[in-house]
Design brief:
The protein has 390 residues and is mainly beta. The protein is built from 1 helix and 34 strands. The chain has one helix spanning 25-32; strands at residues 10-12, 55-61, 73-75, 78-82, 87-92, 95-101, 108-112, 116-120, 125-130, 136-141, 151-153, 156-160, 165-170, 176-181, 187-189, 196-198, 201-206, 210-215, 221-226, 247-249, 252-256, 262-266, 272-277, 284-287, 291-295, 301-305, 311-315, 327-329, 332-336, 341-346, 352-357, 368-369, 374-378, 383-388. The strands form 9 sheets. The protein has a 4-stranded antiparallel β-sheet, with no helix packed on it. Strands 3-4-5-6 form a 4-stranded antiparallel β-sheet, with no helix packed on it.
Length: 390
């Protein structure tokens, strides 16, 4: 497997050393990765006139990601974070509650609720610990590397493996309940988007532009929607993968595909397509009551009308800056970039409101909303901090 610090790195599903007769897998990575060394140079940091102040409420050093994407999580009054070396932390109001060494090198995390914290390894191990103490609870196995943070909800833990399988485990015992799988194509984007629980279903995107709902009870496929249709003559051209997690708001389910589209479905009408737009993204999107926000593969951030898909604004001054998926906190859209800057944009217009610098390392994980109105950031260098929006 080729390993890069960006979440949209290609993986070969079968042993193959060439594409279309002559191109190597490395060539394919660079062709599909706009921030590869041969790609466009990162844009300079744009000058802004702040309309408010963004502040760090607290920060902690939690260790480097070393080429993987680690997403912190909030559960109750606690924040959890992990790193590649296998260390796992719990903080309350920015102060350390406990720190443990899981005993394995980690590749994904964190999934958490008030009872358990779950992380994954590149060897396919799933490790669960008590949220209050860090005590080891159980260990399970999946069929391939874990690149997406596990998802914890109720008595269920959903884990996506690198070979396009979704596993559901019992949160108390670690017993496997079911596994859902799809064929693995020759080429696929390395998916770091976690599965999503929605009522009686588990939602996840897959290669080929597909978004799937499976029954929480037994893992049977209930619905499949086409976010995008693969196009082109070569395997490279036809990569159209739903990599980031889908989002659900008021019965409207939306997802975005790499080399594809943003598509929204009406789940109350059997999953009928409401609208779609030709925007490619492996980073992801966010919804609120009125708008949809998405970061495309060049780092351009769009604000769209949630019900129609019509354009509201476009912020292109961060182009090629390795911009993260957006998060919405109040009247502010928050994105982060490849030089460790956090940018705060107006929800209504997309204009810059403020900027905050972290440790200067790339921020691949999407900013996470906190219940207190702040936003949680974890850089690839291990700078974990809660920041207030303007």
């Amino acid at each position: 497997m080729i390993q890069r610090s960006l979440p949209w790195v290609l993986a070969a599903a079968v042993a193959a050393s060439s594409l279309n007769g002559c191109a190597t897998i490395s060539d394919a990575v660079d062709a599909l990765n706009p921030f590869a060394p041969s790609g466009p140079k990162m844009s300079p940091l744009p000058e802004i006139k702040p309309t408010g102040e963004a502040r760090s409420l607290w920060s902690q050093a939690v260790g480097a990601s070393s080429g993987y994407v680690f997403t912190p999580a909030e559960a109750g009054a606690a924040v959890f974070a992990a790193n590649r070396k296998g260390e796992l932390w719990r903080f309350e109001e920015g102060k350390l509650s406990w720190k443990i060494n899981t005993g394995q090198m980690l590749s994904a995390g964190v999934g958490a609720d008030r009872q358990i914290v779950v992380v994954g390894t590149a060897k396919g191990d799933v490790l669960a610990f008590a949220a209050d103490s860090g005590k080891a609870l159980w260990q399970a196995k999946v069929s391939s590397e874990v690149l997406a943070a596990p998802t914890v909800e109720g008595n269920h833990v959903a884990v996506r493996s690198g070979d396009n399988r979704i596993f559901l485990f019992d949160a108390q015992s670690g017993a496997r309940r079911w596994v859902y799988e799809r064929p693995m194509p020759i080429l696929a984007v390395r998916a770091t988007g976690r599965p999503v629980f929605a009522d009686r279903y588990v939602l996840a995107g897959f290669p080929g532009g597909k978004l799937v709902a499976v029954a929480l009870e037994n893992g049977a496929q209930v619905w499949e929607g086409a976010v995008a249709q693969p196009k082109g003559a070569t395997e490279l051209d036809r990569v159209a993968d739903v990599v980031a997690p889908p989002v659900l708001e008021g019965g409207q389910l939306c997802a975005v595909a790499f080399q594809g589209r943003v598509t929204c479905f009406d789940m109350g009408q059997g999953g009928a397509i409401v609208w779609s737009r030709d925007i490619s993204s492996a980073r992801g999107l966010a919804l609120d009551g009125r708008y949809l926000f998405v970061t495309d593969d060049e780092g351009v951030v769009y604000g769209l009308d949630r019900l129609s898909g019509s354009s509201l604004w476009k912020q292109d001054k961060l182009r090629y800056r390795q911009v993260s998926a957006p998060a919405v906190q109040g009247n502010t859209v928050v994105v982060a970039d490849g030089e460790g800057y956090v940018h705060f944009l107006s929800r209504e217009e997309g204009a810059f409101e403020a900027r905050l610098k972290t440790d200067g390392k790339p921020i691949d994980a999407a900013p996470q909303r906190l219940s207190n109105g702040a936003v949680l950031i974890q850089t690839s260098g291990g700078d974990l901090r809660a920041v207030s929006a303007p």
